[in-house]
Task: structure prediction
Amino acid sequence: MTKPRPIIIKKKIGHGGHHGGAWKVAYADFVTAMMALFIVLWLLNTSKQIQEAVGGYFKDPTGTAKKVGSDMTGVGENFVVSKDNMEQLKEQLQKAIKEVPKFDKLKNHIDMTVTNEGLRIELTESASGTFFDSGSAKISADGADFLKALAEELGKLPNKLAFEGHTDSKSYAEGSNYTNWELSADRANAARRLMQEQGVRLDQVTQVRGFADQRLRKPADPLDPANRRISLIVQYMQKAPEVPVPKEGEQPAAPAANPENKPTTERAKPAEPKAEKH
Result:
C-alpha cells in the first residue's frame, strides 16, 4: 500500500523592514525640521524690521491690522510713504539714527514732526554750533555723520525731499555783504550736497530754500540758538488722478472746457447790454 505524500505548506516571510515606507515619513520630518532650523538661523541674522515684518505676517496674514508684515516692512524696503504710514517712517528713522556716533550728544537737537507737508526733520544748533560751525555753512564732523546716516535711509524712499535753512535774528557786522539770507540758503544747500553724495538721488530733491530769520522757531526769543536750524521735509507722494475707464458702448469723458496752460481759440461772447434804470 502506497503511503500518502505529506502536505508541505510554504510560508513566505516578508522583508518589509527596510523595504517599507516608514523611513520616508521619518526622513520627511527630518528635512522639515532642518528647514525650520535654517529659517530661524536666517531670521536671527536679519534686521529688526524684517523680523517684525515676518512676525507680523503670521499674526495678520492679510496685512490689514497694523500693516506690519504686508507692504510696510521698514525703511530699507522701498515702501511709499503716505499720510497713513508717515508715523511709521518716523519711528523707523528714530531707530536708525540711534546708531550714529555721539547720538547722545545730538539727540536733544533733533526734532521729527509729522505735518501737512510731510515728515519734518529739524536739526537745531547750540550756542557753540552742533551740526554746523558757528556762523558758517561748513558742516561739523558730528553733523556729517548724522546726515550720512539719514541719507542712506531716505535715499531708499521714492518720496521727494525739500531742504530749508533758518537763522536767528542776530545780524552780521554792518557793511558785510554776507547776511542771514546767504547763510540760511548755504547751510540748506550744504546739507543737500552732502546727502546726495551719500545716497539721496539727484531727482529726489525738489527745493532748497533759505528763510533767514523770517520763520523763527522761538518767536519770543529771536536770538535763541534754536532758531538756527536746517529742516528736511520728506514730502507725501502725490497720487495721479484716476481716469475713469469707459464701459463698452460708452463714449470717453470729454476733456475740460479750458484745460490749464492750454490757450483757447474760442472768442468770448460780448456781454448783453443791461437795461438802464429810470
The domain at 80-235 is CATH 3.30.1330.60 (60s Ribosomal Protein L30; Chain: A;). The longest strand covers residues 118-124. The CA atoms of residues 258 and 265 lie 10 Å apart.
